[in-house]
Amino acid sequence: MKKVFYLFAAVSVLSLAACKSSQNAYKQAYEKAVANDTPAAVEAPVRELSENPGAPAAEDAANVSVREEKVTVVTGDASIRDYGIVCGSFSLKTNADALRQRLIEDGYPAVVVVNEAGKTYRVICQSFTSKQEAVDARAKFKARYPDNKDFQAAWILYKK
Questions:
Q1: Distant-in-sequence contacts of 40-47, Cβ < 8 A, 24+ apart
Q2: What's the pTM value of the predicted model, to 2 decimals?
Q3: Cβ atoms 135, 156 nearer than 8 A
Q4: Reduced to 3 states, what is the DSSP secondary structure of residue 114?
Q5: Burial of 158 (0-12, 13-18, 19+ CB in 10 A)
Q6: Closest Cα partner for 82 from 71, 97, 95, 94?
Q7: Listed residue (129, 50, 122) closest to 82, CA to CA
Q8: Residue 152: CB atoms within 10 Å
Q9: What is the pLDDT of residues 97-131, one digit of tens each?
Q10: Strands 83-90, 120-128: parallel, antiparallel or unpaired by DSSP?
């Protein structure tokens, strides 16, 4: 039994020693790869700056999709204009009211409306008479909250 154990141990040691790659081979291969890897000159693309670099790029209102829904104001100003920027949708009115309060503290005339078809509460931060005004305001709103992924998904509602 001892002979088998010693034989197994000797074969294991020899097989592991035979498989071991030398550190010099890796080092030589690495140095050769580094010598052949000369970076090509990379030119950065030229970008023209707008007059106001912090301002969001203007979108064409014709290319922006709008959802059309029949809504009724439930909290806030009793009337909203035709195009509204929706920054939150909730199934519970209390959640919508909490977001409305936060937006009011940030200076937005926010209102909560209810979508009569799905009984969903929408928080509209601002509303406008023209689609282009709403598109421009939505871009400014998204630029004000760049780290808030929910606000980055803000969309435009057309009130029926």
A1: none
A2: 0.63
A3: yes
A4: strand
A5: middle
A6: 71
A7: 129
A8: 13
A9: 999 999 999 999 999 999 988 899 999 999 999 99
A10: antiparallel
